[in-house]
Amino acid sequence: MNSSPAVFEPIVGRYLQLPLGGRQHRVYVEEAGSGTPLLCLHTAGADSRQYRAVMNDPAILASFRVIAFDLPWHGKSSPPEGWHQETYRLTSQDYAQAIIAVADAMELDRPLVMGCSIGGRIVLHLALEHADRFGGAIGLQSGAHVDPYYDLEWLNRPDVHGGEVCAGIVSGLVGPGSPDSHRWETLWHYMQGGPGVFKGDLHFYTADGDIRDRVAAIDTRRCPLWLLTGEYDYSCTPQDTEFLAGRIAGSKWQIMEGMGHFPMSEDPDRFLDYLRPVLAEADQSRRAR
């Protein structure tokens, strides 16, 4: 019987203890490669496993120190003590604070920051409010706002399986041509989310994080911005990204053919073809400033 040899991936994970919002947190962080720091932010209700292909790509790891962490309450990061007595709701202030706290704890000097979905939204906030802290921003599936297009109460009810409901709701956001193995791994991450976490993230995505009235103030001379959006995404549509590009002077954008809302995890090989030239340009821009 033929079998593949055992292979260790270059990804190394560890835990970071740090205070956020006056409370102690235990945050899980993964990294691989060396060079320009690239800080990756996962989607709502998921975790850093979504960036597994980026963190295993030899061409990227030769030039970039790729870092991804699980937000508190997500993946292998724990919720804070007393979590059972509260309802989780992500705010733009708490979100930005967590990202900057991790970057500071890891002593990252003007990292490039890349986020998808809620991560794509928060990079707009970071580019606007913390431009000098980052060497550039890459927004995947970035939109300034989205109205809820389904009843969010289904995401955390005692009479349904929360993980399967979350996966079912996002399943249509995966591009129709995505390989089955990557499609189902993407959905598995949603099936494993903690109760109420996806719903709490969407508080930021649908309400608190609305940045439509402020995006025009983003100064791409201080924090260059690249936008990559899948053509089949109906949560952040190509039109949503075109709206941003039309209001943020100097931003660069591209629609990724055949892809949906989770490009880095649903179809990683195709995504990397789009990402590599953007990373090279972003790195060159960062070094020139």
From TrEMBL:
Q: Which InterPro entries match?
A: AB_hydrolase_1 (IPR000073), AB_hydrolase_fold (IPR029058), Carboxylesterase_BioH (IPR050228), Epox_hydrolase-like (IPR000639)
Query: For the AB hydrolase-1 domain, which residue ranges apply?
Result: 37-142
The molecular function terms of the Gene Ontology recorded here are: hydrolase activity
Q: Which domain of life is it from?
A: Bacteria
Keyword tags:
Hydrolase
UniProt-listed Pfam families:
Abhydrolase_1 (PF00561)
User: Would I find Hydrolase among this entry's keywords?
Assistant: yes
What's the name of the protein? Answer: Alpha/beta hydrolase
> Do the record's keywords include Hydrolase?
yes
